[in-house]
Amino acid sequence: MPELPEVETTRRGIAPHIENRRVSGTTVRQAQLRWPVPDLASLLTGHRVRAVERRAKYLLLRFDHGTLLIHLGMSGSLRVLSGDTPPRPHDHVDIAFGRRSLRLHDPRRFGAVLWVDGDPLRHPRLRDLGPEPLSAAFDGAHLYAVARNRKVAIKSLLMDGRVVVGVGNIYATEALFHAGIHPARRSSRIARARLERLAEEVKRVLGYAIERGGTTLRDFLNESGEPGYFAQELFVYGRAGAPCRVCGTPIATRRIGQRASAYCPRCQR
């Protein structure tokens, strides 16, 4: 699944091509994604995109009269293409801006295209979310305040969107490794200083991944069609059985919250 860095990479990639541009037309080839696609032709044609923003893993295309929410689901991607580029299988939605089009590709159809008339941050998909991980609202004090009375594994807490948004499996795994914290450790049993270090590592890992273009996943391509580069630098995620890059101990895995979690038995406690 594209995680926060992939979505932010996409936002930065498409924004220069569509901000302050007027929609000249739309094409919907598949009207049923995770939820039905609204009537984009009547909603968007003739209107100008004022800003391209991100909240958690949702992209927000803001217009004067409302906001288009786009979620990439498990395997989606957005690309800006020449308007005459033939569609591939699973190219479900085009939003045209003259000679160029913003195209949504989603093989598994778990993505979403939603329209919001009012404040998009009050939409049911966004209103209960926690702070952005790269914002000042997320820090060690926040993480400690939430964790001190929680019995869940720290990795599960870190991936709870009500605690902090956008820290998916890959980046939670990597941040926990760099903070030296075992992913299954009970949240309430972790000292404040260690949680402050973890918050710092979340910010560092996500920030670096964004700089490097996101993580290469099998189904993810950035807006130009090229994979990101961060995956080849992962320390533990996807490296079960391989030697730890720090101490040489084989990377182990266990299931936490129905997800496979990789960790170093020696470096993380």
Shape: elongated
As a percent range, the share of strand residues is: 15-25%
- Percent of residues in helices comes to 10-25%
Output the helix-strand order: HEHEEEEEEEHHHHEE
Report the top-level CATH class of the largest domain: Mainly Alpha
Low-confidence stretches: none
Number of domains: 2
**Annotated CATH topology of the largest domain:** Helicase, Ruva Protein, domain 3
- If you compute it from the alpha carbons, what radius of gyration comes out, rounded to the nearest whole angstrom? 20 Å
Q: What's the pLDDT, averaged over the residues? A: 93
Describe the structure.
This protein has 269 residues and is an alpha+beta fold. It has six helices and ten strands; from the N terminus they run αβαβββββββααααββ. Strand 9 and strand 10 form a beta hairpin. The longest helix is centred in the last third of the chain and has 20 residues. The two termini are 28 Å apart. The mean pLDDT is 93.
